[in-house]
């Protein structure tokens, strides 16, 4: 039903266009335009009424009684151009200005712009008027005293003065007082020496205490090392009477272990068979200090036949 109304409206419009186009003779090449009330083209009116399609499709639908479209009739009457060009001529006059619309909502505030560069330095201003007289300042501090003036000329010689009173007779030096002073100095020095001796004795006691503590610590560490040493060699038998490196691998590993566990102590482990029967060998653990044996321990191994 909707399409039918569009076709009827278009046919009515086509008839009007055909009449306007026929009124123009082929010799007169003046373009004729169809003007609507609202300044809209015929195609726009057709679309509003429900027509669906392009401008060219709409033109093809405007066919008169003789089977010609209004565009064909316009071309016969002198129009030059495409169907789209012809449609642009079918625009009404500009309509009246519409009423002012309602005020729109306020837009979102824009970001602050970057600060502009400082302007060029202005010219020097004119000299201002002379200011009012200022308030009187406070009195300044007193200045320093001036230097003494130049020495004056020598005065006249004065009169001789009266004879003075006789002074008190002085005492002779007393040897006892000198001896007493000397004895006091000696006594003071002796007291100072005594205090120094007491301090030295205390230091020696403290040093002896520290040495004893260090000695006890060395003994404790040696005893711990000796225990590990005996556990390692206990029950072992040797197989060569003349080879003193038979247990070298065990000895080297033990020495490395003692270095890590007992830092600062110098251990050695030796194989001996001196003053022993040929069937026995001694393995000795030694703790060295200042180039001499400090402590030692040993274990006796038997020969295995």
UniProtKB/TrEMBL annotation:
One Pfam family of this chain: Collagen
TM regions (residue ranges): none
InterPro entries attached to this UniProt entry: Collagen, Lipoprotein_mollicutes-type_CS
UniProt keyword annotation of Signal present: yes
Keywords: Coiled coil, Signal
Coiled-coil segments: 179-225
Highest taxon, organism lineage: Bacteria
Leader peptide range in chain numbering: 1-23
Positions of the UniProt region annotated as Disordered: 92-170
Gene3D superfamilies, per database record: 6-Phosphogluconate Dehydrogenase, domain 3 (1.20.5.320)
Name the UniProt record assigns to this protein: Collagen-like protein
Organism: Mesoplasma syrphidae
């Amino acid at each position: 039903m909707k399409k039918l109304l569009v076709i009827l409206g278009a046919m009515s419009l086509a008839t009007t266009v055909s009449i306007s186009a026929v009124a123009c003779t082929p010799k007169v090449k003046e373009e004729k335009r169809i003007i609507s009330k609202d300044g809209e083209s015929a195609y726009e009116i057709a679309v509003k009424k429900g027509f669906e399609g392009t401008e060219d499709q709409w033109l093809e639908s405007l066919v008169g009684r003789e089977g010609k479209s209004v565009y064909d009739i316009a071309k016969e009457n002198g129009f030059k151009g495409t169907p789209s060009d012809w449609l642009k001529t079918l625009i009404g006059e500009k309509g009246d200005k519409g009423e002012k619309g309602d005020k729109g909502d306020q837009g979102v505030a824009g970001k602050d712009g970057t600060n502009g560069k400082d302007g060029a330095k202005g010219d020097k201003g004119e000299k201002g008027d002379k200011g009012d007289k200022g308030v009187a300042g406070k009195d300044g501090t007193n200045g320093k005293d001036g230097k003494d003036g130049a020495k004056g000329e020598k005065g006249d010689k004065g009169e001789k003065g009266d004879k003075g009173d006789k002074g008190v007779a002085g005492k002779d030096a007393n040897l006892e007082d000198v001896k007493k002073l000397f004895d006091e100095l000696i006594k003071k020095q002796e007291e100072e020496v005594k205090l120094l001796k007491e301090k030295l004795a205390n230091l020696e006691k403290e040093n002896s205490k520290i040495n004893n503590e260090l000695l006890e610590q060395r003994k404790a560490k040696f005893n711990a090392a000796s225990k590990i040493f005996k556990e390692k060699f206990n029950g072992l038998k040797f197989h060569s009477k003349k080879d003193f490196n038979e247990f070298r691998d065990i000895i080297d590993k033990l020495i490395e272990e003692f270095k890590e566990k007992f830092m600062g102590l110098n251990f050695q482990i030796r194989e001996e068979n001196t003053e022993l029967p040929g069937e026995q060998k001694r393995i000795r653990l030694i703790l060295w200090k200042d180039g001499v044996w400090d402590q030692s321990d040993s274990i006796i191994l038997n020969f295995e036949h």
